[in-house]
Amino acid sequence: MTISDIHLVISVLGNDHPGIVDAVTRWILNRGGNIVESHMAVLGGEFGAMFLVSASESAAREIEAEVDEMAEREELRAIAKRTAAPHHRPHPGALAYRLTATSLDHPGIVNRISHVLAEKRINIEVAECAARPGPWSGAPVFHLEMTLAIPEQSVIKPLREALEQLSDDEGIDIELKALAC
Predict the structure, then answer these.
(1) Are 123 and 174 members of one domain?
(2) The domain containing residue 101 runs over which residues?
(3) In what order do the strands lie in the sheet with 140-150?
(4) Last residue of a domain, one of 52, 83, 114
């Protein structure tokens, strides 16, 4: 077996402090795992990270068996879950698009946009959002950016129409652009 036979997603969450990334990545490396991809952020006072790890079968079993012990030692919550290889896409042939949305902050923006996407059977692959004080008024301005996997070309026009209606109803500036392959 090679190191890339098994893939795991390892997710960690805990109070933010220096050294979390060092401790978790060292633990993964010492068990024979290789970090293929990661996403990390501090939200409020909490640090969260997801790591896509490739490993041999024996290394994967060791990571799965010891993840709770590592989490307790590092004062984190953690899980390890087997997943598909990164080249095994759940939506083959889907069109890649970027959606951005900006608005004065108000409850429900993410839900309303994600609801339109779900109705059109569009997968959200990456999403990041934040509300920050606006440059002139100081009022919170919400910004959202998503990478989408759109299943087929025929969905684009009805999607644009639904997003335009949402934009008008909620006062959200929404832009949808195809990404280069």
Answers:
(1) yes
(2) 95-178
(3) 123-133, 140-150, 95-104, 173-178
(4) 83
